[in-house]
Known about the structure:
Radius of gyration: 16 Å
Strand order of the largest sheet: 8-7-6-5-4-3-2-1-15-14-13-12-11-10-9
Number of helices: 1
Structural class: mainly beta
Number of strands: 15
Largest sheet: 15 strands, mixed
Low-confidence stretches: none
Protein name: Glycolipid-binding domain-containing protein
Shape: globular
Mean pLDDT: 94
Distance between the termini: 14 Å
Organism: Streptomyces coeruleofuscus
Amino acid sequence: xxxGRYSLHDPHDHTPLAEEHFHxxxxxxxxxxxxxxxxxxxxxxxxxxxxLDELGRPIRLELHxxxxxxxxxxLDGVTWVRTDPAGTDASEGNVRAHAFTGTSxxxxxxxxxLLRLTPxxxxxxxxxxxxxxxVLAPRTVDQSWTLLKREAHATDNGPLTVDEYQVTALDTGxxxxxxxAGDVVLAAPGIExxxxxxxxxxxx
Length: 204
């Protein structure tokens, strides 16, 4: 069960945004990721709890940030309820999308688990609902994912397979690379893996 820490920063000016302390596990019915976020000064900032089924679909999502809360799942596309800090106003949303995304590395793993790509030059289109910080506002985004290459690297625990993806934002054409090993993000814009206590798990 991988356990470790990511640092999150602004991908444009590298301003530190948060530390994300996580653990995740592959099980017989899918994958679960749980994390706590702290500010650069160490204060609690939020949390992520995401569970996928064996096909990579989000069967349970719970996000907390700045006292806002989102609960969601794959239902008629994706459905969610967003609650304000006072707990008095809850708004429901539904979009014909494949899954959710956001700033947490968990969502990159979830997207690759859903798409199950093989190395190819062709991109696969996916529609996602992004919850943007700091108030978890929902926004629908269209992306194209391509698995550029898959390489095995020697480690003390045996070979580690690293996948390099190219992600294209279809509204702007902006592209970036994501490097993933199993269920751990090694590098992505705004994300750095700072500490990992055990090797990544491998999806079946």
